[in-house]
User: Fold this.
Amino acid sequence: MYAKIDTEMAQFYQDKVVLVTGGTGSIGRKIVRELVNYSPKKIIVFSKDDSKQYLMKQAFKQFHHIYYLIGDIRDYQRIEYVTRGVDYIFHTAALKQVPTCEENPDEAIKTNVLGSINVIEAAIKNNVKKVINISTDKAVNPVNTMGATKLLTEKLFKQANMKLNNNQTKFCSVRFGNVIGSRGSVIPLLYEQLITGKALTITDMNMTRFFMSVEEAVQLTVKAGYYTEGGETYILKMKALKLEDLVKALMEFAKKHQLKKPKVQVIGARPGEKIYEELAFEFELAQIYETEDMYVISNNELPKNKFRKTSLMNYRSDQVNPIQQHEMLMIIEELNQS
Assistant:
């Protein structure tokens, strides 16, 4: 199955029109980079940051089928216009920083919830075939504004499959863990502090986080678009890291490269932060299917030739296999060489 899925996906996306909201962000940009491999007819990069669009145009100038449109998902008229003639949407646009959303909950609601409603309504009106929503582990049993808005968005996307005016559009969500290399990710943040000689600011040594590479995140998202029949939640099978182990790996890296041993400053959990993260609600555990590299939560029975029913007691970052120190060192080394 896995040997041929790339060919199947290539055929699936070939000659299609794909829209990526938030397409200049760290995830959206990588999705665009992956999609060009499948020969789509057109890729539309939609975002409100003109500077990032300009820089992305320069980086992707060899691709003449990528189009850049300025706009905000809060503006229904604009997103409705942009979705005309689109086959698939990858919805990555969102406010994602936990502290920012805690300080500006009204703005988080406007973008993450009301903006997503605009995407849903526009997709249905224009008969888009599939829409894939990028969500997060923070949507599970949320304790912060960002997680709460993402949970609402997941529910909106699931319910959109049953809207009376929905003739053909299929909606699903993908739950990410901590994406290494994305803006605000903990490993690049602490690495930068180490390289610049600053103290490593640690919230809590016992804090654990699911993690995935940008490449894994993108592959999961593209596969979700290929597989979805509407209503599923896709989750990568992930390891977790403990901040204490990450600090030890950074200390080892500093020693290996003859850098000054960094000080560690424990600053405590920020408002809205959890000690561990979860990727599935308790009520979802009876509805889980799996493949070699992902879990799929679905109320509907999935094809047995592609998915097998499984059972989990939980899916928490403090109760899965932790990343080993040598693996963490490899990640840090890759950051050092990039």
